[in-house]
Amino acid sequence: xxxxxxNETLLLELNNIKNINDSFAGxxxxxxxxxxxxxxxxxxxxxxxxxxxxxxxxNEHYVxxxxxxxxxxxxxxxxxxxxxxxxxxxxxxxxxxxxxxKIPLEIISxxxxxxxxxxxxxxxxxxxxxxxxxxxxxxxxxEHQLGTAVDFTTPKIANTFSGFSKTETFKWLxxxxxxxGFILSYxxxxxxxxxxxxxxxxxxxxxxxxxxxxxxxxxxxxxxEINKYxxxxxxxx
Length: 237
Known about the structure:
Muramoyl-pentapeptide Carboxypeptidase, domain 2, 6 helices, 4-stranded antiparallel beta sheet
């Protein structure tokens, strides 16, 4: 009886020790997750999910930390274009998937520096006057400066963009782009610029899926709600 009692006491002590260890393991795992999360946030440019387009301003000194050349087999007339390095695989996967489904898709414009924006705006203003404000952002307010926005076209549409919204390419993008983290920045009836079916922005797979599933528009979300998705910006490939 005495030996049995001692064994029961030992078992209780072992269980207590195990519970304490499990508790510590849980706390350590929680701390590890938080540290990992902080590291991801620190490495992710805080500008990537800001609402530009007449809302926030990027100054002339802003350049994405990492830009990579896009293989010219993906660009219109094999033009040299740049895109944010870590987001680039998502973009290429999107185009590869489209082409595998016999959907023609090419990049006609990607990263634009502050200086390039200023140059283009001057040309558009000279040509269209104040009407340029309906489709062209002032320098510092363009999503293109982030290095995570692209304008798409097809060999047939070329550089006119005319009729792009009526193409199978636009239909495919509308139905599938969110899977690769891309959203349509300026849909019909938006309050920023005219409808631009060719202009798409990378916001991360997690946020893009949320917007698609809930039929929401990026610029209609509160910035604090959008910021919650920054930690997942490069997840999902």
